[in-house]
Design a protein that fits this description.
single chain, 79 residues, GTPase activator activity, DEPDC5_CTD, IML1
């Protein structure tokens, strides 16, 4: 599932956002996809011109576990 959001105001550093959700993918597949996107935007790592940033953000800010670091088990208190 992918959606694109654009901002109603002009900001040269952030013209639009892409939100991509997936259930299962290997690190090789994600690495290849990110490499293809950076090549299409002609981003050169180490140069002053940066056109592509990928920032992982969990979809649910109130989730029981951290989606970026793995499952964290919590104990529920009895009332």
């Amino acid at each position: 599932c992918a959606t694109a959001h654009y901002h109603s105001f002009y900001n040269p550093h952030c013209l639009f956002e892409l939100e991509i959700r997936w259930l299962v993918a290997t690190s090789c597949i994600l690495g290849d996809l990110i490499t293809q996107w950076s090549q299409r935007t002609r981003t050169i790592l180490g140069s002053k011109q940066v056109a592509f940033h990928l920032v992982p953000i969990p979809c649910d800010p109130f989730a029981e576990c951290d989606a970026l670091r793995g499952i964290k088990q919590t104990k529920q208190k009895a009332f």
